[in-house]
What we know:
mainly alpha
Amino acid sequence: xxxxxxxxxxxxxxxxxxxxxxxxxxxxxxxxxxxxxxxxxxxxxxxxxxxxxxxxxxxxxxxxxxxxxxxxxxxxxxxxxxxxxxxxxxxxxxxxxxxxxxxxxxxxxxxxxxxxxxxxxxxxxxxxxxxxxxxxxxxxx
Length: 141
């Protein structure tokens, strides 16, 4: 672990790693929301079967659709911000006097490929690896 009072760690002034950290958070939030939506839908169907006349499941479907639209728009924004964020953060780390010297262009290319080809599946692995290496070199996150 890097000492927070280390002057080398304080030289790195980049908040772009937040975009990198958003990828695993986005995926976990999607999994949790999917489980919640499933439970909510089953509860709505149960209410309708016991005399709800379709109102409960209809309301649940509308809520799920709205949530899906918001989640999808966030995913589109993250698809753009993740490669930019990892590139700019790696560029800042490469120019700083820290123990790790990431290649910004390589991370940009891998981030773009992982977003476009695997729809965040490998992006999570890349983001976690990057944040781990960043933590070892800088102490943040």
